[in-house]
Design a protein that fits this description.
By secondary structure, the protein is of the alpha/beta class. The protein has helices at 3-11, 20-28, 48-62, 93-107, 122-125, 130-137, 142-146, 149-156, 163-179, 191-203, 240-249, 255-261, 267-274, 278-294, 296-311, 333-340, 347-355; strands at residues 16-18, 34-39, 66-71, 116-120, 183-187, 210-214, 320-323, 359-361, 364-365, 379-383, 387-392. The chain folds into 3 domains: 3-214, Rossmann fold (3-Layer(aba) Sandwich); 240-311, no CATH class; 320-392, Structural Genomics Hypothetical 15.5 Kd Protein In mrcA-pckA Intergenic Region, Chain A. It contains 17 helices and 11 strands. The radius of gyration is 25 Å and the shape is globular.
Length: 393
């Protein structure tokens, strides 16, 4: 592919693309680009938010460039302050290592493993002494750090900022120096950090990396960015059932960004979709997304199950069953639901759901009169929209 065409691919869906001219020069010279993405293993799951950036990495791979997937096992000990209103909790080395391993397993659901260079920033930071760190921070001022929106906001609101958080952008910037990155990818909330990478590369006599910042995918609530911290995310490791159900729960207006950023559909394709029924399009989104992670057969099976349970108000084929003896000591329907271990909420939530008509026994809404549980009773119970189980007498 010629240089201009490659640059168009790089720019697709990007919110910020800095350093284009330098990148063009490298491409014209026939250089294979080193493209960096750093991810901190703060929790076990990668999310659809990561999928947005992984798509861009995959495009670089398909064009013959070297992708570097950097595991921030050292920087995780500090915690990226991007978009934060408080300091992140500290993880143990064991937690970080466990999360790192599962990140790699999940990343290769999108990336080509054979074309991915995996690095960890403990490779260099783990060997540095305190004097080395002082040498790095000498290049940055406090005033420069306070230019960052989230730091300034916390400062103005008298919210504590740990001194160690100031170190995070410095360490991320030095990662680019050590990896000799030509391009760094990230979400739009990473703009400050990746720009500092350019500053440090210049200080260390390297050509400044280009920057591609991708949009932040909106989460299931249709308001905030998708985040593990907000709990509004779809994880790569979700079951096919949960993944399908979560996609079907997103607001209609939100799904067009999913088509654009996850499935890389064009504006013309999305406009055609908007002319059709939103529910049909959301089902299509769920089917296409699940096919990516589980294959077409599983995607079609979950679509069938969803249709059975929600559209036809039926009962799923693989319903969980329990013997009635398990509930001999239960006095109420709520006790029975709790005893199954299937409901993750509290008794208070169950009572509220009951009052709202959200619990059914054998197809009939449960109420205050039907809440008493009879021993050896046989029943099919629905809790909310997704949880079904059967009690066998």
């Amino acid at each position: 592919m010629d240089v201009e065409s490659q640059l168009k691919v790089f720019a697709q869906n990007a919110e910020r693309f800095l350093g284009i001219d330098t990148l063009k020069e490298k491409l014209l010279a026939g250089k294979s680009l080193r493209v960096k993405l750093g991810v901190d293993p703060t929790r076990p799951d990668l999310t659809y938010g990561h999928w947005v950036v992984f798509n861009k990495l995959r495009q670089f791979q398909e064009l013959g460039h070297q992708v570097i997937f950097l595991i921030g096992d050292y920087t995780t000990q500090i915690g990226d302050p991007s978009g934060r209103s408080s300091t992140r909790p500290v993880l143990s080395p064991e937690q970080i290592e466990k999360n790192s391993k599962t990140y790699l397993e999940q990343a290769f659901k999108i990336l080509d493993k054979n074309k991915t260079e995996v690095r960890r920033n403990s490779e260099w930071f783990g060997k540095m002494c305190f004097g080395d760190m002082l040498g790095l921070v000498r290049h940055v001022t406090v005033a420069q750090m306070l230019e960052r929106d989230d730091f300034m906001k916390r400062y103005n609101e008298n919210t504590p900022i740990a001194l160690v958080e100031f170190l995070y952008p410095v360490l991320q910037a030095y990662d680019s120096v050590m990896l000799k990155a030509d391009v760094e990818l990230g979400g739009l909330d990473q703009l400050f950090n990746v720009c500092m990478g350019r500053q440090f590369q210049k200080i260390f006599g390297q050509t400044e990396q280009a920057i591609i910042c991708m949009p932040l995918l909106v989460g299931l609530d249709g308001a905030k960015k998708m985040s593990k911290s907000f709990g509004n995310y779809i994880a790569f490791n979700d079951s096919s059932k949960d993944m399908y159900g979560k996609i079907m729960s997103i607001p209609d207006e939100t799904m067009w960004d999913y088509f654009r950023l996850l499935l890389l559909e064009t504006s013309e394709q999305i406009q055609q979709r908007k002319a059709q029924h939103p529910m049909a399009m959301k089902k299509d989104l769920a089917r296409l997304a699940l096919t990516k992670f589980f294959g077409e057969a599983t995607a079609l099976e979950e679509a069938k199950n969803f249709e059975t349970v929600f559209s036809q108000k039926g009962i799923p084929e693989n319903i969980t069953e329990f013997p009635a003896e398990k509930f001999q000591t239960c006095k109420t329907l709520i006790d029975v639901i709790v005893a199954t271990g299937l409901f993750s909420g509290s008794k208070k939530e169950l009572k509220r759901l009951l009052e709202q008509g959200g619990i059914e026994v054998n197809g009939k809404k449960a109420d205050a009169e039907s809440i008493t549980w009879q021993a050896n009773k046989e029943a099919i119970i629905r809790v909310g929209k997704k949880l079904f189980f059967k009690v066998n007498a």
